[in-house]
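Dear support,

Our group has been running a series of protein-ligand predictions, and this particular one with FE3-S4 cluster is the one our PI (initials K.S.) wants archived with full inputs and outputs. We had some confusion internally about which version of the output was final, so please treat the block below as the authoritative record. The input we submitted was:
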Amino acid sequence: MKLVVDQDGCGGHGRCVAVAPDLFDLDDDGVSSPITEEIGTDQQAAAEEAIANCPQSAIRIV
Ligand code: F3S
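Confirmed final output from the archive:
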């Protein structure tokens, strides 16, 4: 599974980092990126929680 953040869609709300700090990091502009793009099944629940909490719907798993 690959974790993807739409850089143009991210509005810097930071909820992804709040709910899954091991999966996301914010740059100096507050835009989120996955810390590691490839995630395992043990990280899927945290990723899905971040997806559910992103008000911009900028996160997805592919
Ligand atoms: Fe951006 Fe959504 Fe996270 S808007 S900072 S990807 S909660």
